[in-house]
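Intended use. Records like the one below are meant for learning the mapping from a protein sequence to its folded structure. Do not use them to infer anything beyond what is encoded.
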Amino acid sequence: MNPRTTPRTASAVVRRSAVLLTAALSALTLTACGVVGAVGGDGESASPSRSYDITVGLLLPDTATARFEKFDYPLIRDRVSSLTDKKGKVVYANAKGSKEKQSEQFGRLIADGVDVIVVDAVDSAAVAPDVEKAKKAGIPVIAYDRLAQGPIDAYVSHDNELVGQVQGRALVNALGEDAEKSKVVMMNGAPTDPNTALFREGALAELNGHVDIAKSYDTRKWLPEVAAENMRRAMKEIGTADIAAVYSANDGMAGAVIDVLQDAGVTDLPPVTGQDADLAGVQRVVAGTQYMTVYKSFLLEATGAADIAVAKVQDRSIQFDALARDVVDSPTRKDIPAMLVPVVALTRENIEATVVQDGVYSVGDICTAAYKAACAEIGLTS
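Structure written out for the chain above:
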């Protein structure tokens, strides 16, 4: 979806996203086999004359979000290697939630003369001067997962407003006829992350007029412990029994919210949303303690970022090669070429058709001893 267009209903987009996800995965498989993408931006066949001995700098924001270390980094590393006949390499650093550390890491990559930088910014505004320095050094910068400010060359992420729509619609559906009189607590992400505003905007498009949003909190650095403290505050101010649902922007915070509720003796848990399909989040969905999570294909996003990074170094047109079909605007730049990957609402009903089928987790990963009975209940067996 072009981010400037009026959002469609979440249900319609989720159906379309599932189709797009399947098609995109098929296309990615063909690309890996050499069937698609054998023609360059100039219409000539790919040849060894292209630059393969390249270095991609990869900066990820934190280790609190499990997917970054477990999926994003290795997927980007392996894709770069595959695209460059194993001659390309990825230099990786994680900021562990510190914008100052990320700035130092950014500066080191520039000084080392990497060919391209892929950055998932801790703070989208604070990273802008570093992007400017890279630009002056002739190093293209690709914003990954979060839209960074400054003169970035491309953006790879998901339709983040749609993520919020999917979460909001899930809560409204879960509450059913009681939705309008239901009190909902919103646990939003970090205010320094531009995705937070998009998630919230999408969720509010579905929640406003359908539920009573009793409390809304931002969560510093997406820290689960901050979400836990905010949840305790909400329970005290609203009354635990009166909280009908919790919008949690991601799985880490969802886990903290659920722990707080269970520690307070709540056995009939309200529906709680999530995002990222972390293993612990998927297991909570299996167990029924977390209502849903948003599955965003790590494979498509990470390999898409690697594809664009290599294309930029090889001076190929990412629009001509159909790598960036959308455009987005940041506060500092308009018409940024973008690849927006579809998202899917993951519930107990479609775990096998999403994260298991895509090879993110095996049934054995999910259905450990503590979850075997719940897995059997939904027919998730090896």
